[in-house]
Amino acid sequence: MAMVSGYNLLKTRTHGVHEVAYTLPRAGDKCWYHALAAAPLSAVTRTEVGARVAGLSALIEGLRAEAPGRSVVLADFGQGACVVLEHGFAGGAQSDAIFVLTGCRVGQARDERPSRLPDGLQTYLSAGDRDSWIPLSAFAKAAIGLGLGGAALRMDVFPGRPYEASGPELAMLDEEMADLAAGRAPGQEVGR
Length: 192
Fold this sequence. Notes:
4 helices
């Protein structure tokens, strides 16, 4: 299984007897786009997000060609998580699961954005109610879009959690990756 995330390193991790390869690209200019996630979409932000989404699609296609039959997971935190979510809605080359740790759709409901989410896309979406970067209202709108779009969605809101990924979120990522590495659909059953 290959996992794509927002850090510039490559490593492997073993889940039981299954090895998972992590491919972790770095965002240019230390950010994926130059705007607040929940701000109205500008032409510049739309172009930046579109380029990042296209880059993820190309990376997925490359990973699938290099390792046919392996699961591909997109996962990230914060701004990168928002790009992962936009990639899911864009409908291009898709991963088998996405993990949106503290993320939302980029832009606002009145902005024209793609909504070609693949039916049944395994999705984990999380937020903290004290997050100063990803408003809980934007997270909730993303959850509604995922639910209406047919995602296999689990979501968690962590009371009192600021802008960070917590232990339970990382445990969910580990458990779901172990399921995928073992050839099972993610169970999405990790407790808090």
